[in-house]
User: What shape does this take?
Amino acid sequence: MAIETRERPAVSDEPQREPQLGAHLVLQALVREGVEVIFGYPGGAILPVYDALPYYPIHHVLVRHEQSAAFAADGYARATGKVGVCMATSGPGATNLVTGIANAMMDSIPIVAITGQVPQSVIGMDAFQETDITGITLPITKYNMVIRSVDEIGPAIQKAFYLARSGRPGPVLIDIPKDVQLAKGYLAPRQELRLPGYRPTIVPHRRQIRRAAELIRQAKRPLILAGHGIVISGATEELVRFAERTQIPVGLTLLGISGFPASHPLCLGMVGMHGHAHANRAIHEADLIIGIGMRFDDRVTGRPSEFAPNAKIIHIDIDPAEIGKVLKTEVPVVGDAREALRLLLEEVEPLEHDDWIGMIRSWYRPIRTEPSGPDGALQPQYVIARLHTLTEGKAIVTTDVGQHQMWTAQLYRCDIPKQWISSGGLGAMGFGVPSAMGAAVGRPDAEVWAVVGDGGVQMTLNEFATIVDEQLNVKVAIINNGYLGMVRQWQQLFHNRNYSETPISSPDYVLLGQAYRMPARRVTRPAEVDEAIAWARSFRGPALIEFVVNQEENVYPMIPSGGSFRDMIDETRFEGEW
Amino acid sequence: MNVRSHTLVVLVEDKPGVMNRIVSLFRQRGFNIDSIAVGHSETPGLSRITLVAQGDDRKIEQLVKQLYKILEVIKITDVTDENPIQRELALIKVTATDRNRSDIIRLVTDVYQARIVDATPDSLIVEVTGPPEKVDSLITMLRSYGIKEIARSGVIAMARGTRVVAPEAQSVVA
Assistant: This one.
């Protein structure tokens, strides 16, 4: 490439002799923070940075909409554990990032968003493409800042990356006025950051650990609820050891999936609104809940007053504001999930809960995965189950939001941490394709499946172009039921089947794939499923399969919003009473 | 739990945008701020904010935890249950005539220990300092004369005795 012949400015902590443009200092600071990839889109107010970009060892992925840049940075961060970076111009570029930033905030994902801004001389003048992006993103960033002089570039970028990845991770936005990009100065060496108001507790208090261990010893029916914090802190090994030693079964939140191996005998799978019935019943019957790296979200608890009615609560989380927010907690433990589990392992002796585990097993009913429904239509659950079997659970799976997301969470039994990527807290449709793109850029050797619905995919299918440009190993599986399925399910169950604005048409996805030069197939019958998946896996690079499925299939079990375990709706009703 | 008035003393780094972050958090979490007063503290670079807001104890505790997540917030103390010294300053412009001027002056100076700081043929400006209840009380009494304008500073508070609301000096290395 031509850029290789150009001389690269040195990036080191050596003092620079000649002053350089702020735009160069921005990129030097990014390289210094270890940035290898930026998902972005150029524009007027960020042009100086784009002018300097070819001189630096950073791979820029040109997205087709800035929202996808933020989602891709998010997917990159989840798949690699590194900080994801997205970049956009001022005004509409910056506002288009907003949904992706909010998504990263809700799910504690470390991303740094860089936005160009109009020159400081016209800030506040309603200049062309001026928006107050730091004002707009104030409640949806962990921190945001405007760089007001060229001298601040180094320290600001160092601070942004430190804040994004440390403590409870989250998005940080840096707004850089164009005049700062064009001013000349020096990159200050990395130095100790003075952040007197930011002191995340990593190692928990030993006394709280001992109190937790005491409750664990006494419990007859204990249950671990493992959340995203397990994945973020890399605590899988510690959690497996802890669960095995104490023989405590593990339920997973939506984002806890992959944090504890699904194939482990103590794994109960997902809990919550569409969690497995036996897992939710275990919560209902438990006498101790150990929440680790999770926040008792309403999709987990339903009506909090009836959640785990017989249980004491141990709550381990790095964010003290999450403890006691929803439930009364007997033992709060503030700290990193991995550190907490390490300390707990020092305090607990081997335990046995054979009766309790046997009881939970007796409640188990598999999620139905028949190939076809009563009218012969392909069943979506079957597609996911086959995808799991054929990929042996080893693919990175991203999802969009809706029914397909829940079926995938139930049936794609993920064993490897960081290989489950889904929009949890925000529930942002359009996430599936761009997050798969980010994951594939970060993990080029991995097989990445974006399982998406026909609604969500139409929000960001412009990124097919990016996936093809980059020849990413992304296989898009569209579960097409002709509806905004989850909303339709709510309409069916709670709004008298008034399917208001939920039937949705689709383009011909096979033709669309061809238009984007993306190999594409359509599957309408169960017999074609295995062959199509095998076809998509037979080559490296993008592929698209449209699965035309049973239109009115529902996700079960289901605990209606704000309900309790007693309100659970399940096709495969239990025998017995509770 | 019962809703009551809480007085929070918040020490923050004196940087642009900090007040916005704090006030925005109250808005975001649905709290109304009854009173807010800001000024420099005893430590250079630190400002002291006194906030008064209504809420039950659990919600206020949650709010305090959320406030701590603002990077520039150094220390928050809920002084509500510590019987702190609370003071507010108010300037009250009240209509005065030849007939009632001496009544007003007597009320303000003798009963409330407040001061007259400006006088014209048909108005007086009263300066009163004290606990917010005292300010409220004087305002109630002056209403019958006709209040033209009120400016209140917001409450400031300080714990009694030797105990201080002070930051713990610490820094974090990246």
Observations:
- Chain A touches chain B at residues 134-135, 138-139, 143, 158-159, 162-163, 166, 190, 192-199, 319-321, 324-325 (CB under 8 Å).
- The longest strand of chain A covers residues 111-117.
- The CA atoms of residues 121 and 179 of chain A lie 8 Å apart.
- The domain at 206-363 of chain A is CATH 3.40.50.1220 (Rossmann fold).
